[in-house]
Design a protein that fits this description.
By secondary structure, this protein is of the alpha/beta class. It has ten helices and 14 strands. It has a six-stranded mixed sheet. Strands 12-11-10-13-14 form a five-stranded mixed sheet, with helices on both faces. Helix 8 links the parallel strand 13 and strand 14. Helix 1 packs across helix 3 and helix 5 crosses helix 6.
């Protein structure tokens, strides 16, 4: 089965074109390396209404690794399917139409400049150029591309290229079959995050998704992803540092990280001194990538949005604002959907962990 995964309108996803019509309910399923999140939305009058959501830790489910792939992808299909079935049941999800995310580390996203040539010439040239950017044989990936907005003031045309290993797509299809869900689309998580946080905001924004094992930077201009770059640093790195530095258990280290964060209290500096150098190192790498981007374009990054479970670290936003010298916020994807007022404070607190799942569930409702 041939599955294209670029919508005509950005951002891209893996469209299952044999499914026609738009469902009234969709569940976004984000299988992360630390936990699995689901969000069910109901579409009504061009609005997305939150019906239910939930999260389950992967520990206890994903134990037997196959040795192939990275993150949760290296685990057995049946174990992943059991995890998904349980989080759907515990969260009281009723929708069977689902959109799933591909980890950013399992796909390749790059913007390629071309001279101003015809559409046919670009389509002919992209597969040849793709070999320079995709680090595995093209015969092993599902490849798609789209032309970004054409700026008449420039002498080049930018093409957004997306590639996902075929084995990753096949694994998701097997998991969906075992779980009993109808897969509407499969999408690289970067685009899901952008949809849930940015939408149609034209402001040039850097979105930093700080996960358990890795962090992803996406630069978005006029709602379109212009840059996607990954860093091999995540929140687990901070937990491991506390565990080693203070000689405590992993559970205690995780608790200390969440409770203390980057505290400036004298009595908590021992913990802070372990984490701050690691966080500063990550921010330095991210800032370097952002500055490289700024040097190549006239539309500079104007603000930074943090998301992902790791972004809930206390003190991170203030430290990042000082480091970047620009406006820094923690995004709230639940603000993009209709929710009961009485639970909004609680949703805002947990929202960074649900950016991908909300963006997935919004896939069928909006193009961005």
């Amino acid at each position: 089965m041939d599955i294209p995964f670029l919508k005509k309108i950005i951002p891209p996803g893996l469209n299952f074109s044999f499914l026609s019509g738009k469902p009234s309910r969709v569940v976004g399923i984000d299988i992360g390396t630390y936990s699995t999140k689901v969000v069910q939305l109901r579409y009504e009058s061009e609005r997305a209404i939150l019906e239910t959501y939930g999260e389950l830790l992967n520990a206890g489910y994903l134990k037997s690794a196959t040795g192939v792939g990275s993150g949760f992808l290296r685990f057995l299909d049946k174990d992943i399917a059991t995890l998904v079935q349980d989080v759907l049941r515990e969260s009281k999800v009723t929708a069977r139409d689902a959109v799933l995310s591909v980890p950013a580390t399992s796909g390749f996203t790059v913007t390629i400049p071309f001279p101003k040539i015809s559409l046919q010439e670009i389509n002919d040239a992209v597969p040849l150029e793709a070999r320079k950017y995709v680090p595995i044989p093209l015969s092993e990936v599902t490849l798609a591309w789209t032309i970004l907005e054409n700026d008449d003031t420039r002498d080049t045309i930018e093409v957004l290229l997306v590639a996902v290993p075929k084995e990753v797509v096949e694994k998701f299809k097997r998991i969906a079959e075992l779980t009993g869900i109808r897969t509407r689309a499969i999408e690289i998580e970067t685009f899901s995050v952008v949809r849930s946080l940015i939408g149609r905001d034209p402001t040039t924004t850097a979105v930093i998704n700080m996960g358990h094992h890795s962090t992803t930077l996406a630069v978005v201009d006029r709602g379109i992803v212009r840059l996607s770059h990954g860093f091999n640093h995540g929140s687990q790195e901070l937990t491991r540092a506390i565990e080693r530095g203070l000689a405590v258990s992993e559970e205690r280290a995780e608790a200390l990280k969440r409770e203390m964060g980057l505290s400036d209290r004298i009595e908590e500096r021992e913990i802070t001194s372990v984490m701050t150098p690691l966080v500063t190192s990550l921010l330095t790498e991210v800032n370097h990538a952002m500055q490289l981007y700024n040097r190549k374009t006239s539309r500079k990054i104007q603000k930074v949005d943090f998301t992902g479970g790791g972004s809930q670290l206390k003190g991170l936003i203030d430290l990042a604002a000082t480091h970047f010298g620009t406006e820094v916020t923690r995004g709230n994807p639940f603000s993009r959907v209709v929710t009961p007022p009485f639970i909004q404070p609680m949703l805002q607190e947990i929202s960074p962990s649900f950016s991908v799942a909300i963006g997935l569930a919004l896939y069928e409702l909006t193009s961005r």
